[in-house]
Amino acid sequence: MSAKLKRQLLIKEILNNESIGNQELLGKILKNNGIEVTQATLSRDFAELGVVRSFTESGVRYVLNSTESGKQIQKLIGFEILSVISNEQVVLVRTLAGRAPGVAHYIDRLNRKEILGTLAGDDTVLIIPDSIANINRVERMIKEMMYQPPVPENYQEI
Questions:
Q1: How many domains does the chain have?
Q2: E strand or H helix at 83, and its extent?
Q3: Binning pLDDT at 50, 70 and 90, where does residue 126 land?
Q4: What is the bridge-based pairing of β-strands 51-56 and 59-64?
Q5: What residues does 64 pair with on adjacent strands?
Q6: Residues 17 and 48 occupy one common structural domain
């Protein structure tokens, strides 16, 4: 996973779990997590992730705009999923090491009626569909999230 993807995932996690009112504080938290970042880079990350300033009861806070961030987060999640398989009862998703909890959280937040829930280890997510009839649908949905490298225009299969 690239440094940018790691940084953006950490930014998302921080903004979801802490009240951050300015970029300086976020920069310090990132630095404490081993990530040096400039204000310009944070601004670009905010734009890509759909981060907006929101006025809350406790003051100004940076939050993820659900419309914009959903698109960006799905791209990030797509890089973390390595494979998807299923049997007659469940769908199993293999992820990058340590990323299964984040992938499972994202899948849970989709609030799809076909998914009862997920269970995450370190690099494996178990998805429990609402019925056996929806296993293929759930598997296909997760496979569509996976990163697909673009095929060059002049590519020819031999």
A1: 2
A2: strand 81-86
A3: very high
A4: antiparallel
A5: 51
A6: yes
Query: Across all residues in the chain, what is the average pLDDT?
Result: 87
71 pLDDT band, cuts 50/70/90, is: low
Range of the domain at 14: 3-64
Do the Cβ atoms of 23 and 61 come closer than 8 Å?
Answer: no
| Residue 116 · residue 129 · CB < 8 Å | yes
The residue from 39, 64, 89 where one domain ends is 64
Q: Rounded to 5 degrees, what angle do the CA atoms 93, 142, 7 make?
A: 75
pLDDT digits (tens, 9 = 90+) for 5-46: 889 889 988 988 888 889 999 999 999 999 999 988 998 888
Task: Report yes or no: 128 and 115 within 8 Å, Cβ to Cβ.
Answer: yes
List own/partner pairs for 41-50 with CB under 8 A and 24 or more apart: 41/7, 42/11, 45/4, 45/7, 45/8, 45/11, 48/8, 48/72, 49/8, 49/11, 49/12, 49/73
Whether the predicted pLDDT of 98 surpasses 80:
yes
Return the pLDDT at 51.
84
Note the pLDDT of residue 14.
92
| Amino acid of residue 50 | G
Which value, to the nearest 10 degrees, does the dihedral of the CA atoms of residues 105, 108, 109, 115 take?
Answer: 160
